[in-house]
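Reply to thread "Modeling small-molecule complexes from scratch"

Following up on the discussion above, here's a worked example others can learn from. I took a protein sequence and the SMILES for zinc ion and predicted the complex. Inputs first:
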Amino acid sequence: MVKIRTVRGDISPEDLGVTLSHEHILINLQFLCNLMMPQEASLRALMDKPVTIEMIYLLRRGVRKFNYDDALLSDIDLMVRELLEYKSFSGRSLVEQTLPGIGRDPLGLKRISELTGLNIICSTGWYIVSSHPSYVKNKSSEELADIMIKEIEEGIDDIGIKAGVIGECGCSFPIPYHPEEEKVLRAACKAQKATGVAFSCHPAFIDVERKVYRTDAPLAYIKLIEKEGANLEKFFLSHSDIVCPTSDHASKLLEKGINLSFDTFGQDHYDDYIFMGARHPTDPERISNIVELCKRGYEKNIMLSQDVCWKHLLKRYGGPGYSHLLEHIVPTFRYYGVKEKQIRTMLIDNPKRILSF
Ligand SMILES: [Zn+2]
């Protein structure tokens, strides 16, 4: 039977409804703070402070990743309140892409799913190499694939919760991937072939040596997936809005038959503190990109989300929250002529088709 696998068991694809393709609910990204340790004593002094409203401006600029409290989402009551905002705008489901090494907590997700009534799909795999648990290094891609397959088919540890998606398998540096990340990607392909689930990767886009953003990594992932014989139609490229700054970049990848997840809506980070001039796209840029792709008829391979993963992105801290897409972006799509049917396709039909197996 075709199903979608959530933390509270399998559901019918018909019951998925409006779905965010790439979110985090419980996550710990504090390893990034250690990597990005700032030089200035004034910024270092901020690292251990709890997030305050006064700090938000700095966190939204290049100083993000410099605060341990910002990098931790762990308060179940707070996350329930944040998610109920999404539900109040007709949200039904979320793909939760947090992995071992960055705080995956399937039992916590199950509790949140029970308290909100939202469908949460939990993932398996490993994020960028600097977050890998130590056991990853000693295992072959076949052994890593076996772990993923077990988590999908039998369950995670022995807690009675199964993973329903693979990813975001992380790629960082060198571009397109570190050898350990390539191993994880190959494992993801093997596990996808064995189980039929959807899989996703976090593309490498920061060239650490030249200090610029790069957009050429996804073609290498497609090549690897083709070589491993996994199903390209079940692959979705996370953070497509970062690696596809224009509709021409996006069209080139869509022609290969993959799906694009435009999933950082609400984030307009400027990374100029780290890399002069480098920045995430802004919402108006994401919107005009999607409007153009819909005009070209590509809506059948696009999913949408916000990748909430820092406290400063929560409504509680003055951020856009989980409802941003439904609350502000979808009405803007309509304003620019995106058809109701195309919006439904991106928010409901595509997640349903891609996530069911
Ligand atoms: Zn993510």
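What I'd highlight from this example: The two ends are 8 Å apart (CA to CA). The mean pLDDT is 94. Questions welcome below.
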